[in-house]
Structures are given as structure tokens and as C-alpha cells.
Amino acid sequence: MTSPTTSTSSAMVSVAGLKRCLSQMSMLAFKATTSGEEAWAHTWSRFRQSRFNARRIRKRVVFKHGDCNVIQGNVAKRRRKYLQDIFTTLVDAQWRWTLLVFAMNFFLSWLLFAVVWWLIVFTHGDLSEEHLSGNETWVPCITNIRGFTSCFLFSIETQHTIGYGGRVTTEECPEAIFVMCVQSIAGVMIQAFMVGVVFAKLSRPKKRTQTLMFSRNAVINHRDGIPCLMFRVGDMRKSHIIEAHVRAQLIKHKVTKEGENLPFFQTELKVGGDGEEDKIFFIWPTTIVHKIDSKSPLYNMSANNLLRERFEIVVILEGVIESTGMTTQARSSYLPSEILWGHRFQSLITFKKESGEYEVDYALFNNTVEVDTPLCSARELDERRAMFNQDGIEENSKYLTTGNCRMGIGLFPSVRSHSSDTLSSMDSLSIDDGHIEMKLPTSPIPVTITAPEENVEETTPLTNGKIPNGTFKNKSLILHV
Q1: Against a cut of 0.70, is the pTM above it?
Q2: Dist. CA 221–CA 292, nearest whole Å
Q3: Most buried of 20, 400, 413, 441, CB within 10 angstroms?
């Protein structure tokens, strides 16, 4: 059995908890009644900050989905200028406002002409009691009009040429005939204008850009010995983009020679399917290339200072829609953190022998693979290449493999043979009186040298890049790599 003291203490604890709960509820009620608007405003501001700061924290000029992060402020007479171009304003407006204007135009036009019809029949005396009682000798302006509701129904029938047959304009009032003509013309103009707005909004080429894709990241690697910046574009529809061409602009801070600060200076990047021509045959995902040469603004950029740079590369894809013939433009952008150094896009096009068609796997659209790429800038790489070509292999082999350009001799096309199947040429061989010596690449590659000796064919493996003395009687070599 529980003691009276224990039961009393538990009762006191429960009472204290109940008081605490009531006090908290009263505080919440007080806040809701006294500072409800302030709390709502604070919550809404925090929601907007958490929603929009995530995408604006990087200070993009163009978002990944193509919208521009630009707003216009302090524009003089903005509303008047928007109303002067009401068609474009309605096309650019959101659907809820377009549909609201669409409905209000018809409703207000019906209401306006209903008031005009009511004034006509009222001034003519058609709404008096004696004429509404059924006097057969009285000829009204409009038959079967009993009040404003009848005038509103007649306005709708006249504007849309419904013609139920219950209400008819007579020859008694010329003004009624004139108003009927005016309303018919006005109704056709309003209907044509609003149908044009809705059709232009439905078929505008901006919606076509939703099926045009840009790769999530851009990559930097070597193609044919030249450093290149690459990104991938794709189209999910079967209808193609005709006369598709690509542009790219680098937006970066610049200080002129006169000391003028240009915070958003735009520099055009030469891009294309091959790095030269900007027009592409856009039938499947295409990798767009920008060659980082001496004319490129990225010429002095290395892998170390890539993330320290502050710039944005805006890419633009333009073309004509095959199905509608309208011009469309898709946009995206890449920040330094979205550029992968030493990566290459994975191939996503395969040929299906069963159906005889080329299949594009869009699951691999953003996939990249790592490749060997020098970490130095293109400028430093060209300087080392020039020094290498001028002084030769012996004196600069150590210099080429130090610093950020830690790559083998095979990177430099001048020491490769003309055949793409060989890893080395006869220029890398040195023949002395005592032995034959060959300089091998950094990675060990098994090489076998075979030479004839009178009617005997011997095969001797190469040891440490040297062949023992007296192995061959002549110096005719056959290399098997």
C-alpha cells in the first residue's frame, strides 16, 4: 500500500504539471492574439530565406534551369509601359492572371453592353407597367425584355451570336440596331485577342527548352594534345532543333588599364562540336568543346587556382523548332566548383544490332571518368613544350616531370611517331658500340626484340632497357609491344 505522503506528493506534481501546461497554452494564445501578424511575418521571412538563399548563395547570373537572376528596380513609369504592350504582358504573366483577365474581359463586356441595352429600353419606355402588361399596340426596341436580367442575357446572346430566338431587336429604335453592330464587332475583337494570347502562351518556345538538357558539370581534359573545356548538350524529343548553334560567355570581374572596374565583364568563348564551328548537327547528345589556347581567357588557369577563381560560364543553345518553326533558346551556367579537372564524359551512344538503331542512354548523360591530365595551366604547358622541343629530351626530362605538369613524354606530340599504333619511335633509341639502349615510358611495358642470325631466330627479353652484348650479329630490330 502507498503511504498518504506519497499520494500527496504525486498529486502535487500532477497539479504543478497541469499549471505549467495551462500557462504555456495561455502564452501561446496571448502570442497568437497580440503578435500574430508579426510571428507570421517572421516565419514567412525565414521560409523565404531558406528557400531562396540556397540558390542565390552562389551569386549566379543564370540559374542551372535557364532563368536569369536579374530584377529591374526603379523603372520610371513601369506600369504605363507594361500596359502599352499589354499583349506581351499577358503572355509573360502567370496562367492564373492570364485566365483572370480572360474571364474578366468577357464578363465586363457583357455587363457594359447590358447597361447600354437597359438604358435604351428604359428611355424608350419599354419597362413601364402599362407596356409590360401586354399592350399589343406598343412596339418595343427589344422584345421580351422584363428588366436588367433580360438585358444581360440579350447582351450575351448578341455578342456570341447564340440566337435563342426569344429576344429580337426591332425596327423601332435605330440606336438599338447601331449598338447591336458595335457589340458584335467588339465581341469578335475581344475573342480574337484573348484566343491569340492563350495560343501564344501555349506555343511559346520557352516551353520547348524544358526538354533540352545541359550536363550537370563541365570538364577539362586534353583532346589531340590541346587542353579543352567541355560540356554536353542533349535533346529528349524526336523532333530536332534545326540550325542549332551554341554560344558560351565568361562573366568575370575585370579592371581596365585606366583603372575602371567592370564587375560583370562578358568575354565570348569560341565553342563548337570540334572547338571551331559553333553550328552542330543536333540529332543526339553532343559534347561542346572550347580549346584553351593563347586566345582563350582560361589560358592562365591551372587546377590549383580553379576553385579560387570567381567567374561564371554561361552557355546558350539556340535553334529553330522543327515542329513549329519558332526560334528557341536554352541557357545554363557553370561555376568553378562545377568544372571537373581531369575528367571526360562517358560515351552513351550504342548500336543495337537487333533493331539496327542507335540507342542513347540518358542515364549516363552526366557521368564522367577520370583521365590523366596535367595540372598546370595551358600557358605553362606550352612554355614547357617549347623548351622541350628546343633543348631535347636529355636535358629537360627531369624538368618536364616536376611541378604541376607531372606527365610523361607521351603527352607531347612532337616525340610521338606518325603511326597511332606505336608508343615510341626510332628517335628514342641510342646505339653504342657495346650495346643497344632504349628509353622506356614510365609505366613498365613488356617489349620483345627479335633479330635474325643466319638461319636461326632468337627471341631475347629486354632487361632494364638494355640488350646483352653479342646477342645479335646485326642491328636489324623488330619491336613487338
Answers
A1: no
A2: 10
A3: 400
